Predict the 3D structure of the following.
Amino acid sequence: MAVGGGEGALQAGSLSVGEVLRSGAPDVPDPVERVPGRGRGDSTVNVSPTSSRPTAITCSPSRPTSRSQLSQYGAEMLVRARQHSVGSDTVEAFRSVSSVASDPGGPDPDLTPPVPRRVIDPRRRYEEPCGLNFPRLILGYRVSSLGPNCSLPLPRRKQASMYVFELVQPGCWLRGITDDQVRRDVESLLHLLVTCVEDATLALNMFENSRDRAYESAEDRSSSWESDRVRERAVEEELLRQLPHDLTPESRFQQMDDIRESARREAKRMKWREGHLPQGYQDRIPFIHAKSCVYALDTLQKTLRLLTKVPDVPIDIAEVLKEFELAFPDLVQARDSSHHAEDRVQGKRRKDRIELKPLANKAIHAPGGGVLVVDMLNDNRYGGTLGDGSYGEVDVSPQTVSTAQQCVQRALNAFDWHGPAMHMPR
């Protein structure tokens, strides 16, 4: 698109947006433009000319504006074409130079291809300590293990797989409990135990799958960033074309911030309409599955506690509950903090203020206390500040679900059954 007319017309396609906008401001330096490169994470920085007023950049003589200039224009174009034509004399000259320069004595700097730009592996950017100054409130934070302070997620599984934790119910109906209502209640509670293991297993599988996808997303983030910038630039140029042509350079420059923000928002909406999930949503997926696993384990523990209060139940149920509580000492309070996040973000437990205790792990170092953590993933451990001010977490891993599976199997085996055995999951 040409701005103006005649021989002094500005070829907008050859100039940056900053040069076009600053055509009337001689003292404003030209900006540095970042142009997306071809390789992943690669970009080149082009510095625009520092002339006070941009001039027309053309590759051909000015086109005629009247019939009288038509013949002159054609003659000039013919002269230029002859100057750049390759004839027999040119071919012979090239052959003579090639025969003389058979041994140049080293690589020709004009013919040697440029050294490719070194692309930094994104996994190496997190190997050094990050030195973060953590605020008082840490909400929805995620860190993984590959360095002393912060790093990328754990390595992906080499092939698609899933975890299955099997259970065997020794029979279909309970016997030995005389009260029919109590028997039905116990059967329902035992069925709920099995459901909790299935829910925890599904949550674990989806949690690890979401982490795998997050790892792949981190690898492709540089190329996605470049495509997003191209999309924003296209929208920005379209908005610039819609501006009135009679605006002064100062007024046009003042509207650039609004145009950039509008272009950024519209580019994001275009990406969403194409089916791309917003990055903020992707970051929350592992948290959702981690909390689902924690909630399933918490329900399992409450169910075991209810079973211990039922009359005529085997004494082994109390031992199973004790073993489960020893395996997950922070489970109940971690679930409470997650479920009552509206209180934790205020530093409260019910109506009382929480005295924050010292905290030191690979993500946060606060020996003097004063750090409130809500909704945090530390590798595959989900946790946060508990009601007593300490930090607690629950491991979301196959070992955790396996412990739950063994406890439920012991609870099932503790009862007297009759009828055919049932293998689960179905």
Q: What stands out?
A: The mean pLDDT is 73. The radius of gyration is 35 Å. Residues 1 and 319 are 81 Å apart (CA to CA). Residues 137-220+280-424 form one domain.
